[in-house]
Amino acid sequence: MSQHIDLAEDESDNYWNQISKEDQQYLVGPKNWPNPCPWCGGRLQHSSDCVQMQAPWAPTMPFGKYKGKSVGEVPVSYLNWVTRKQAGDDAFRKELKLWQKRKGK
């Protein structure tokens, strides 16, 4: 149960005057939080089950030395190379792009 404390106007101003303008802006300004994770809803921290929920939806590499592996297991540098070289078919590249967007990579 929260308790509301009624402060006089000048008393409230006294508290605000004790903190910096940057801190005031942080407290009352717009919140620049990242978008929530589409899997677990976390903004700054994912739930412990998030990785397990995502695993079945990750595309599988259809070619190369990582053939058959989930893109989550493939080094980011290799995925970037795939994207740059436009390797694989259109459907795979589209899936990969969506997966990278969701993962923020």
Work out the helix count.
5
**Poorly predicted spans:** none
Radius of gyration: 23 Å
Gap between N and C termini, in Å? Answer: 42 Å
Helix content: 40-55%
Silhouette: elongated
Architecture overview:
With 105 residues, this protein is mainly alpha-helical. It has two domains: 10-55, no CATH class; 58-103, no CATH class. It contains five helices and no strands. It has helices at residues 9-17, 21-28, 50-54, 76-85, 90-103. The protein is elongated and about 70 Å long. The chain starts with 8 loop residues before the first helix and ends with a helix.
Please tag this protein with its features.
105 residues; mainly alpha; 2 domains; 5 helices; 44% helix; elongated
Set out the fold topology.
Layout: H1 9-17, H2 21-28, H3 50-54, H4 76-85, H5 90-103
Task: Write a compact overview of the structure shown.
By secondary structure, the protein is an all-alpha fold.
